[in-house]
Amino acid sequence: MAANQTLQRRQSQLTRGHLPSYAVWVVLGASVILGAAIASLIGFTVVGWAIISAIVFVVAATIVTAVAEGERKAKDRLVTFLVYGAFLVALLPLISVIWTVLERGVPGLSYNFLFTSMNGLTGAVDNQAVENGTPVLGGAYHAVLGTLQITLWATLISVPIGLLTAVYLVEYGSGKNLTKAITFFVDVMTGIPSIVAGLFAAALFALLFGPGTRTGFVAAVALSVLMIPVVVRSTEEMLKIVPNELREASYALGVRKWRTITKVVIPTAISGIASGVTLSIARVIGETAPILVTAGFASSINTNVFSGWMSTLPTFIYYQILTPTSPTSPDPSTQRAWAAALLLILMVMLLNLGARFVASFFAPKTSR
Amino acid sequence: MSKRIDVKDLNVYYSKFLAVEDVNINIEARSVTAFIGPSGCGKSTFLRTLNRMHEVIPGARVEGEVLLDGDNLYDTAVDPVTVRGEIGMVFQRPNPFPTMSIRDNVLAGVKLNNKRISKSDADSLVEKSLQGANLWNEVKDRLGRPGSGLSGGQQQRLCIARAIAVSPQVILMDEPCSALDPISTLAIEDLINELKAEYTVVIVTHNMQQAARVSDKTAFFNIAGTGKPGRLIEYGDTTTIFNKPAVKATEDYVSGRFG
Known about the structure:
The complex is a heterodimer. Chain A has helices at about 1-10, 25-40, 45-70, 70-105, 110-115, 125-130, 140-170, 175-190, 195-210, 215-240, 245-250, 255-285, 290-295, 315-320, 330-360. The model of chain A has no long low-confidence stretch (mean pLDDT about 90). Chain A has 15 helices and no strands. By secondary structure, chain A is mainly α. By secondary structure, chain B is an alpha/beta fold. Chain B has a ten-stranded mixed beta sheet with strand order 5-4-1-2-10-9-3-8-7-6, with helices on both faces. In chain B, strand 9 (about 215-225) and strand 10 form a beta hairpin.
């Protein structure tokens, strides 16, 4: 009985000194206070305070852990803090961008902005709005329509080409010289500056339909030059990770190769392909330069991609900032530009959410 | 429905490398034939030549004849897809299609080929195939669930159901139990015994007890050394191969004195 009790009371040989879980928070609190003190000595700023507190906290927490728990745990803590720190630093620009765009863009997001174009809106209207303090008129409806149409057409062009190229590369052409050539040129295409893609499309249509041919479709061609390599690359990677066993299982059932590809390989990889396509759309939806040289700029609604100039959100922002509608009071234009920027970010975000939804919808189900 | 296979002077190549040399073997209809031998001796490679799955690998080719009831599989006019419809295959690792339900997996051979099938025919085919694979009672209430949600042994039986749903003449099995536990293995072995009433079954196995338990005839493959081609050393009734083999190498292998 007595032996049993000593056994219970005896400290386990396997546990060593261990800090309570609140210790880190205590160190953090102390570091923040100490950081505030040091920061106010050299001139207080919030940024300086945060940086000094962070450094003090990392050093202090590492030392405390080293003393209480030993060297290995201290190293573990230090690296953990560094990893978290790197993540926070990487997150800062994103938060900053979102914050700035929200702060300046939300006031401009009105019904007017969303559902009217800039047609007939002159500097005088802006001047009046500023003088009378009335809401800013004019909006980005035409640019939203332009963005959607041009991106849609670019997707319609790029996805079939990119998908079929990837299918050839993975399923038919392994080891062939043509495959190596295609892979090489796709890599080169990935690096093409967007303005060059724009110039290419402009020059191509100038050759075919005469100089100065600028329509939404030309812009879509320019964007598809940028999209195709992204679609090929991501689809290729997705097709490659489809296990070969599935192809063999299908062949062994007497299924032809192209049916195996369309009914087994692509459905298995479809969620990855879908998110790859969405990422490629997100990549081109914000392009400005190729749109300017291929679709020109319009201030009125144009629903025909095959004729007439067209605006997109990025070119709308560009023109609102660079050449305000009213040169004497640029504030309404600036407000419209920020609102358009917010709209663009929202569209890309919706696309990404959509991609996730599509991916989870198509993903192979494993539940029992 | 089941056909015999006769192989004449078959050489199997991967590009220039001769993997299996000069195989002559006669596989009876409605029997179970086991291929045994050390790893790398070419028994799986040889098995894959029996339904022209070998040539799926780039550069792979064969010389010689494989006769299915007298028709040469490697005749230039023969479409390998037709051959694979006649000779089904079950692989080492269970590989149900992850995008399909249990029911669709069984119907895969029909549906992937875009053959039209009425719902009632499909239902009876699913039930018949799953019962043939001894899986019906376990999955009949969840045919709509994904096939990848089953246990490994159930998945392998699902793959067998999928293979017999296209009503082949011959079923090839490439180490079908090597990824399974003993209970699932037993289930598959029972199944092989039942399958032999209707199909010609050829099975590659590393497990000699398994070969002795399930097969009527056994073929022993061996290689002389690394880089040399595999050969068929001895082929005969399973009892003979395991009790009184004619060749010393076979005796060494089946009695565990190998190498």
